[in-house]
Write a structure and sequence with these properties.
This protein has 198 residues and is an alpha/beta fold. It has a domain at 12-143: Nucleotidyltransferase, domain 5 (2-Layer Sandwich). It contains 7 helices and 5 strands, in the order αββαβααββααα. It has helices at 6-9, 53-66, 77-83, 85-98, 133-156, 162-165, 171-180, and strands at 14-20, 29-35, 69-75, 106-110, 122-125. A 5-stranded mixed beta sheet has the order 3-2-1-4-5. α2 (53-66) packs across α5 and α3 (77-83) packs across α4 (85-98). The longest helix is centred in the C-terminal third of the chain and has 24 residues, at 133-156.
Length: 198
Amino acid sequence: MSSLFPWMYENLTEAGCDEAGRGCLAGPVYAAAVILPKDFRSDMLNDSKQLTAAQRYFLRNIIQEQAIAWAVGIATHEEIDTINILNASYLAMHRAIGRLDIRPEHLLIDGNRFKAYNRIPHTTIIKGDSKYLSIAAASVLAKTYRDDYMHQLHREFPLYGWNKNKGYPTKKHRQAISEHGISPHHRLTFNLLGEKII
């Protein structure tokens, strides 16, 4: 993993950005932005979905200790229902970038689309969280902070198993919705029961 197009951006302050929770039925979408030192190295750091929970939390401490700057942003389930999940993902990323202590000069965004933020140049990278350390670091932070939040919600709403599924559309999660109805944290614009749309 290394900086994208190093001959273009090697002297710029570059932040990696990623989100977590986009495909969930409940809860907010989280995003993180991370500026790593140019000499940062980690053999373990990769796409957070490929890591165990223990590895992610171990890496979170390292990232937060060694990053030049990092921040987390969210968009609520109400905002997701209002502006749709794609725009809510952009909003969460914008909030994370805006909370960085240092203004980045270039953004590396996981995925193939992004809404420009505050005139900062950006590059989108498909599967960027498995290619670039700063995006992978952002992936870890977004995932772990969202998991923490869903564990908190689980204590208030244990019927949905959010301590295990984190709000994703598992069979047991949808069965719980069918049997007990929705919670105040479910995304009303999502296909909560998984019905086939004709």
